[in-house]
Structure formats: structure tokens, C-alpha cells
Amino acid sequence: MTTYSVVIADDHTLLRDALAELIRGVGGFDVAAAVGDAPGAVAMAAEHRPDVLLMDIEMPGNEDPGRTVRAVQAASPDTKIMVLTMHDDPRLLQSLLPLGIRGYLHKTATHHSLVAALRDACSQDGLTVSLPPRPKSEPQPAPEPAHHTLSPREVEVVTLVAAGLSNRGAATQLGLTEGTIKRHLRNIFAKLGAVSRVDAVNKAVVAGLIPPPSAAPRRLRPPLG
Prior knowledge:
Blueprint: E1 4-9, H1 13-25, E2 29-35, H2 38-48, E3 52-55, H3 65-75, E4 80-85, H4 90-96, E5 103-106, H5 111-123, E6 127-130, H6 152-162, H7 167-174, H8 178-192, H9 197-206, E7 218-220
Parallel strand pairs: 1-2, 1-3, 3-4, 4-5, 5-6
Antiparallel strand pairs: 6-7
Helix pairs in contact: 2-3, 6-8, 6-9, 7-8, 8-9
């Protein structure tokens, strides 16, 4: 059985130790290192080249989470980065999605959700987001203005891609051919400057063209065919 390596970065010692014990106990994972600050996370990523870095947002040296994410990616390009945080501000999530993180989980997530997200990050090109419900009375932040405008049909296509549908599934849903779906995706990639289906979904969310991920865990998976 494949064993995936994980580096944990969190400044709370008790939580860090508990996460390490949990991850080691589920099978299929090995905790290569556990550190308490952002420079340590980058250094351990460079040294161990882990499959996953599980990173807190609020820890010493992490004043700019985006810069830390980019530093880890430069040090270990194949490491999947997952954020585990108490911050539930969608604007923070939207600022990190374009960088290619593979998960954003609130610390109220269950250990089952965490393990499932780790497995998804290691085994496929997907994104898992888990945020607690926000009060309905709380005003939602305005989406960032879009630099490009998608046609109504293109919005439908990228929405179906965000829901995990393959080209064939999207074609069936919209009554179109797979070739037409592929043509729409090429146009979407060009307009958003995207390099993959997940990247297109992330950029469409950040631009406010489609709704952000819901409060429930949501996984974006690559097409099945």
C-alpha cells in the first residue's frame, strides 16, 4: 500500500501533536515533520518533499499566507498544500484558491473530513473546502470584479465543471455535444487565463462569475471521460 508523507505546520503544540497522532493512526500516512512556524514549514518541505503540507494560517512568520504558499511550492513543487484554520472569511479563501491549494478546512471540521481531504489531495487532482455555516444576517463580501466576461453558456459550463461533471456529463446536462463543451472550455481557459479545469473553476469563483464553494465539504475532481 502506498504511504503518503505529511508535514504539519501549526503553532499550537497540543493541536500539532494531536494531528500527528491522528494522521499516523489512520494508515497510509506518515508524518515526516511537525513545526510551529512558516519558515519551518518551508524548510521541512524542502528537506522532506512531503506529499502534503497541512498548514495553519495564523502562526509566526506567516503574515502573508500567499507568500508562504508560493515559497513552499518553490521549495517542493509536488507538495500539495492544505490549509487548516480558524479563519472562515471567504475573501481569504478566494485569495488562496488561485495559488493552487488543494484544501481549505476550518478547524471545526471532523477528523473524518480531514482524513478524506488528505486522501483526495494525494490521490487525485481535486480541491476540498469545508467552512462552517455563516449567519444569514451577516452581509457577504462583494465578489471581486471580473476582468473577463463569460457568456451565459460558458458560465453554465464552468458551473457544471465545478460540480464535478465530466465533458460527457456536462454535454448530456446541456443537450450539447462533447466537442461543443470542449470548445466552450477552450474559450473559458483563454478568457480566464486558466491552465486546467480546477484552475478555471478557482478563477471563476475569485472573479465572482460563479458562487463560492458552499459550507459543506465540496470536492472538485478531474473528468472521468
